[in-house]
């Protein structure tokens, strides 16, 4: 009985204990890690990664997977820059174009999967490569900035508006210090909205039902195809929001700035399976997973760990999280005996 109690405790709280230990270790080993400045860097990195990861979570809920989120985010970054710097559109138009692009990509992904029966990994992988190529064509692979030379020989005279840059750079006053960036506030609001939607609404419960047993959900009258398409559209829109925030923070259309978004977002969503022993995709776990990834990368950076070791460490952490989720849960299901 004691072994079973310990196993249940490890499954439910093991990952959170690991997170606390990680914070304590970096606080003691890396000078300045526990400072407000370091916390701001962590929160900024978590915000964009977490928003993308929440989109992935919605596709995981319906037993799908979206590999195109990183390319959608980068496409939104490039599209917003192109709209304002080259086409000289106002910020509102640029934002709406990006959100519409994300929804359209999600719609196409969903249709490929539910109507044309293309496996989700292949459909979203193909979309990823398509977007990577498409976003480079207008500028011949160059980043976008005010004053750049265009392929036709002219000069880009537009610029990022102050209102657009506010989205990515402004910080709200907290206890007389400007600490909380706008992207963090947006991330928390989006995480709360998706948590409520998935956990406390009829539509969210139906999406979980589809992920658990698609055939049974269809037999009770659930429009499975529609919910799957909606899940991919949510994922596309979330990726676009992440790209918009990244563009607003950088103030330029950097073609290479979103290279790690896919891996970090997927890691956050999968780590979320281990939080509180959920063993399924969930918004709260994803938010904690994003925080974990952000703390890990910030700590390694402040300890001057070589950049090429970071992906290895993330992989180790992901494997440990999945062991917590599936192996220990399986042992619990068999009473903790071999």
Automatic annotation (TrEMBL):
Its main location: membrane. GO terms for molecular function: transmembrane transporter activity. GO terms for cellular component: plasma membrane. Pfam families: BPD_transp_2 (PF02653). It is found in: Cell membrane. It is a multi-pass membrane protein. The chain crosses the membrane at residues 9-28, 40-62, 69-87, 93-114, 121-138, 179-198, 229-248, 260-277, 283-300, 312-330. Keywords: Cell inner membrane, Cell membrane, Membrane, Transmembrane, Transmembrane helix, Transport. This is ABC transporter permease. It comes from Pukyongiella litopenaei.
């Amino acid at each position: 009985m004691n072994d079973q109690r310990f196993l249940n405790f490890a499954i439910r709280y093991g990952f959170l204990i690991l997170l606390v230990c990680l914070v304590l270790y970096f606080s003691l080993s890396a000078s300045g890690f526990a400072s407000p400045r370091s916390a701001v860097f962590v929160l900024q990195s978590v915000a964009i990664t977490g928003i993308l990861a929440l989109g992935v979570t919605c596709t995981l809920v319906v037993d799908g997977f979206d590999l195109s989120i990183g390319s959608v985010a980068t496409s939104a970054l490039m599209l917003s820059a192109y709209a304002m710097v080259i086409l000289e559109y106002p910020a509102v138009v640029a934002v709406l174009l990006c959100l519409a692009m994300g929804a359209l990509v999600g719609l196409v992904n969903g249709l490929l999967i539910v109507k044309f029966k293309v496996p989700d990994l292949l459909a979203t992988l193909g979309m990823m490569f398509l977007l990577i190529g498409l976003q480079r064509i207008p500028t011949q692979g160059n980043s976008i900035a005010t004053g750049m030379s265009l392929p036709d020989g002219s000069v880009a005279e537009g610029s990022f508006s102050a209102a657009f840059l506010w989205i990515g750079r402004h910080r709200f006053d907290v206890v007389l210090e400007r600490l909380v960036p706008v992207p963090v506030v947006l991330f928390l609001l989006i995480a709360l909205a998706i948590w409520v939607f998935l956990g406390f609404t009829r539509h969210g419960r139906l999406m979980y039902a589809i992920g658990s047993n698609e055939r049974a959900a269809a037999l009770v009258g659930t429009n499975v195809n529609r919910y799957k398409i909606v899940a991919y559209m949510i994922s596309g829109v979330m990726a676009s929001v992440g790209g918009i925030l990244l563009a607003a923070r950088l103030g330029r259309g950097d073609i290479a700035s979103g290279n790690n978004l896919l891996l970090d977002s997927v890691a956050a969503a999968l780590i979320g399976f281990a939080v509180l022993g959920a063993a399924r995709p969930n918004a709260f776990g994803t938010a904690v997973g994003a925080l974990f990834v952000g703390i890990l990368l910030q700590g390694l950076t402040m300890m001057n760990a070589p950049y090429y070791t970071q992906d290895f460490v993330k992989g180790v952490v992901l494997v440990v999280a999945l062991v917590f989720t599936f192996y220990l849960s399986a042992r619990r299901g068999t009473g903790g005996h071999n």
